[in-house]
Design brief:
By secondary structure, the chain is mainly α. The chain has one domain (about 1-195): Four Helix Bundle (Hemerythrin (Met), subunit A) (Up-down Bundle), CATH 1.20.120. Helix content is about 70%, strand content about 0%. It contains 8 helices and no strands. α1 crosses α4 (about 65-75).
Length: about 220
């Protein structure tokens, strides 16, 4: 759903990417640093129940990570490996966020809600894999009510407000994410099934196979 604002976001990030590029840092380094920062914030602070500060740290590194595509564009350092690294690190970051929430909730005695967080983690992986596999088979799969950007926004906003003491917001958000992710998987299955039934798509391994991302450029980079 938020894919529609990516062109505008790219124009905003380009000047920042130019400034970062002048420091000599590579797009790959930005990707890795961003992922490590997100994972550290999620796996160190969330398990301790520090949902607000964990959200602040994670958000800062998510925003930093969004610069990798901008730096790649302005430096011309674009390759398929960069796209592969970016997508893979996104999965690591997502897993860390929901694993951290799960551990924090379980330690707080909220076992059932921790189970919902685990379901959100798994269903999010399936959402991304369904698109990657479909595109690898030559189908289009740009559908879904809850792609990565939407899932991150809902989870982090809810975790932040929970850390500020707002009751029930994290529970409502996680249950909503579980439902929306399930619907998204169904939407992608339906879209691919319709194309397969109509004989659309070349089963030759075509397609970029890139899972959905948040604010990332679609072109490959190093």
């Amino acid at each position: 759903m938020l894919n529609k604002i990516r062109p505008a976001l790219g124009r905003v990030l380009t000047p920042v990417g130019q400034a970062v590029a002048r420091t000599g840092v590579s797009p790959n380094a930005i990707t890795v640093i961003g992922t490590v920062g997100v994972a550290a914030g999620a796996l160190v602070l969330f398990p301790r129940g520090e949902f607000f500060w964990g959200t602040i740290v994670i958000t800062a590194f998510v925003l930093f990570d969004m610069l990798d595509g901008a730096v790649a564009r302005v430096t011309g350092k674009i390759s398929k490996f960069g796209a592969f690294l970016d997508s893979t690190m996104d999965r690591v970051a997502d897993a860390a966020i929901f694993a951290g929430l799960m551990i924090g909730l379980d330690r707080d005695g909220q076992g059932p809600l921790a189970g919902v967080a685990l379901y959100c983690l798994v269903s999010g992986v399936v959402v991304s894999y369904a698109k990657a596999r479909a595109e690898g088979l030559g189908y289009t799969c740009n559908v879904g009510i809850a792609e990565r950007a939407e899932r991150l926004i809902v989870a982090l906003v809810a975790a932040g407000f929970d850390g500020l003491g707002v009751p029930y917001i994290l529970a409502v958000a996680l249950w909503a994410l579980a439902a929306l992710s399930t619907i998204t998987v169904g939407q992608r299955f339906a879209a691919v099934y319709a194309q397969a039934k109509d004989g659309a798509g070349a089963r030759n391994g075509a397609g970029n196979g890139a899972p959905d991302g948040a604010g990332k450029t679609p072109e490959p980079r190093p």
